Automatic annotation (TrEMBL):
GO cellular component: cytoplasm; extracellular space; membrane
UniProt KW Hydrolase keyword: yes
GO MF term (any one): metalloaminopeptidase activity
Keyword line: Aminopeptidase, Hydrolase, Protease
Tree of life domain: Eukaryota
Descriptive protein name: PSA aminopeptidase
Length: 230
């Protein structure tokens, strides 16, 4: 109804607040997705910072309950929920989440304590969103060193979280490099397009500037339609 303009988005946010004690992953996944759409729309307004505060308020209690480490008897959905919540809090700039993500990332890079697969994406996205050129360089180094394609893809999907314009350009250039498999280039560009307002503009310009190469590469297949969609 809010999307159709029948009711105010404020009413939707009030309903979302009522889910603060919700334990179910599927519900949080839906809330996260809808808040993501709202964040994207509000990134073009003065309310962007306020929606980030709202995200932190809604997701903090469940984040504190779940913590960073698995508890005995947890199921697969709890692990998924932890990754979802920590990623959401980290991207929104939740102070304690950001500090812990940086600490764990440092240990991971130095080989002191390797991050579990469930925590890698939320940690990567958090440190990139609030990172600098050194952060991006470290991530690209991890990509180069990764033995498994799964880890390379995981890194490729989150690189677009970086915020500074010149680093966004570096990620887009990386997308077309030999470091990235042709079928995975779209994931990198899509990550940039979904990462920020600056990223969307940069990705759109990049696709137009490199249209011939991209079109020839995918020859009207499903990847070109996915690229256009993102």
């Amino acid at each position: 109804q809010a999307r159709a303009g029948i009711i105010s988005t404020v009413e939707v946010l009030k309903v979302m607040e009522a889910f603060v004690n919700e334990p179910n992953y599927t519900v949080w996944s839906d809330l996260s997705c809808n808040l993501g759409i709202l964040s994207t729309l509000l990134s073009h307004t003065d309310f962007y910072e306020e929606i980030q505060v709202f995200v932190k308020d809604v997701f903090s209690p469940i984040g504190e309950r779940l913590g960073w480490d698995p508890k005995p008897g947890e199921g697969h959905l709890d692990a998924l929920l932890r990754g979802l919540v920590l990623g959401k809090l980290g991207k929104a700039g939740h102070k304690a989440t950001l500090e812990e993500a940086r600490r764990r990332f440092k240990d991971h890079v130095e080989g002191k304590h390797i991050l579990s697969a469930d925590l890698r994406s939320p940690v990567y996205v958090t440190i990139l969103k609030h990172g600098d050129s050194a952060t991006l360089d470290t991530m690209l180094k991890l990509h180069k060193q990764a033995d498994m394609q799964e880890e390379k893809n995981r890194i490729e999907r989150v690189l677009g979280a970086i915020s500074q314009p010149e680093l966004i350009q570096k990620v887009l250039t990386f997308a077309l490099s030999e470091e990235v498999r042709p079928q995975d280039t779209v994931s990198v560009i899509g990550g940039v397009a979904g990462g920020s307002k600056q990223g969307r503009k940069a990705a759109w310009k990049f696709v137009r500037d490199n249209w011939e190469e991209l079109y020839n590469r995918y020859q009207g297949g499903f990847l070109i339609s996915r690229l256009i969609k993102v």
